[in-house]
Design a protein that fits this description.
By secondary structure, the protein is mainly alpha-helical. 73% of the residues lie in helices and 3% in strands. The protein is globular and about 60 Å long. About 3% of the residues have low confidence.
């Protein structure tokens, strides 16, 4: 099951970045991290400084996610004898998360969460960016929380702690790579974010459909069968 889960984790991280309640705020996040200002429709900042601090920021929230993955997998070992039940419950919840993300249902509880905020003080360096990344990882917004929760559910049903850690590390890579790319591009023009922002509703639905499919595969046990089939083909 881990082969499919890894790819799903990467896709979830990628789609999390482009979620409607996160992507439009990326320029403000980057400006806050670097102390940059906006002028002439672009961000005024030293690009090398921007990239170093952005990477430090990504390491910060990645550390939080990896620790979460390890914890989820560790707890999952206690329920090893009930793995089938755990997978069905996890699959059901992932489907619910997908329906919420695709806009088919609206559960108020799933829309609640701690929003990440920072003060107006300018960053003091890469260490501050790392600390802000830690805060960002622990106070993630609700819409990304649905994707993260789904990955944690998969991590909890994985065979080993290592697989859970790997899954969340891959999720962090999926989330971090586009962050770095866009952080660099908006130093040229903010029009890029405005153009991509038009596709947010579509991306949100695609994310929801992906989670619905993944949840159904996990609930029915089909994901294990597909993974076994892929494992045979790899030899």
């Amino acid at each position: 099951m881990e082969n499919i889960s890894i790819w799903f984790a990467f896709a979830a991280g990628l789609l999390s970045f482009f979620s409607p309640c996160i992507f439009p705020l990326i320029p403000a996040y980057v400006a806050n991290l670097t102390g940059a200002s906006f002028a002439g429709g672009k961000m005024e900042v030293n690009r090398s400084t921007l990239m170093v601090r952005a990477i430090s920021f990504i390491f910060g929230f990645s550390l939080i996610f990896v620790v979460m993955g390890a914890s989820a997998s560790f707890l999952g070992q206690f329920f090893a004898n009930y793995r089938e039940l755990v997978e069905k419950i996890s699959g059901f919840l992932i489907v619910v998360f997908g329906l919420q993300m695709a806009g088919f249902i609206s559960i108020k509880l799933l829309n609640q969460g701690k929003q990440w905020k920072t003060n107006n003080q300018k960053p003091k360096g890469t260490l501050r960016s790392f600390v802000v990344g830690l805060a960002f990882g622990t106070g993630w917004t609700p819409c990304v929380g649905l994707a993260l929760s789904s990955i944690l559910l998969l991590a909890g049903s994985s065979d080993t702690v290592y697989n859970g850690v790997l899954m969340l590390a891959v999720y962090s890579i999926g989330l971090g790579v586009p962050f770095l790319v866009l952080a660099y591009l908006i130093t040229y023009s903010l029009k890029i974010t405005k153009q991509l922002n038009r596709f947010m509703p579509v991306i949100s639905k695609v994310s929801g459909y992906l989670f619905i499919i993944m949840g159904i595969l996990l609930f029915t046990g089909t994901m294990q069968k597909i993974s076994a089939w892929l494992a045979i083909l790899s030899y």
